[in-house]
Design goal:
single chain; binds fe (ii) ion; three-stranded antiparallel beta sheet; minor pseudopilin epsh fold; about 240 residues
Length: about 240
């Protein structure tokens, strides 16, 4: 092959490559991704902070600790979730550029999950706390706990161990698929939660939940948490869960 032939082949292959690239681009453009006009019709659902859930007068968890946790952290998740909803309903993130490695749309979907789960878990956490605790496990829940863990104390011990082993949350949850109780640990609001789980007891173990009172000591905070459990709320959650 002489130089003239090689250059000719190279030129042809370049044209072929360009043609192939154009074909891919045309196929990409035909993907059924919503237009900006359609996206702008999406409903924006905004959340409101539930101030009535803020507990006061807990044993071993100060009002000052609850105040920064509720006003600073919980309300921060509500605000960011709402901001993300506005962006999802606008042309901020081009759906045609959605990409799993990086894209603005992916960033919104990932952080939507983080902030929404942050809102829900915090509401469940604050709701299951009351100063000095209230009530006791219902007969039905107590039986289910004893069948699963041997005793209520063993169950609480599992929640505590999981709360020390994980970085975000420890929950006693009910699995609506296999109709059973289990303890579920999370490293973040949206990381390691089991699909189909219905949280009954929700323990926040992020440092922001105890740093005002305990600095970096988590176990005494968890012990205090157990002294403030509102079993009336937990029993109601169980009743709803077993009907799900
Ligand atoms: Fe928290």
């Amino acid at each position: 092959m002489n130089r003239r032939d090689f250059v000719k082949i190279l030129a042809l292959s370049t044209i072929a490559t360009q043609s192939y690239a154009m074909e891919i681009l045309e196929k990409e453009e035909k993907k059924p991704i919503k237009s900006k006009k359609e996206v702008s019709k999406m409903k924006v659902v905004k959340l409101q902070p539930k101030d009535y859930l803020k507990p006061k007068g807990l044993v071993g968890i100060s009002d000052e600790q609850i105040e920064v946790h509720f006003e600073g952290h919980y309300k921060g998740y509500v605000a960011k979730y709402n901001e993300i909803q506005e962006k999802l309903a606008s042309d901020f993130a081009d759906r045609s550029k959605a990409n799993q490695n990086y894209s603005e749309y992916r960033a919104l979907k990932v952080e939507e999950s983080f902030n929404y789960m942050g809102v829900i878990l915090h509401e469940l956490y604050f709701e299951n706390l009351i100063g000095g605790g209230k009530g006791e496990p219902s007969k039905e829940l107590k039986t289910a706990i004893e069948e699963t863990f041997g005793s209520v104390d063993n169950c609480l011990n599992e929640i505590k161990a999981t709360g020390i082993a994980c970085r975000g949350w420890s929950t006693l949850s009910y699995d609506v698929y296999n109709k059973m109780l289990f303890v579920n640990g999370f490293d973040a609001h949206n990381q390691y939660g089991f699909v189909g789980s219905f949280p009954l007891i929700v323990l926040d173990v992020y440092e922001h939940a105890y740093y005002v009172d305990q600095k970096n000591k988590r176990p005494p905070y968890i012990d205090a948490f157990f002294k403030n459990l509102n079993w009336d709320v937990i029993n109601q959650r169980y009743e709803r869960a077993i009907k799900a």
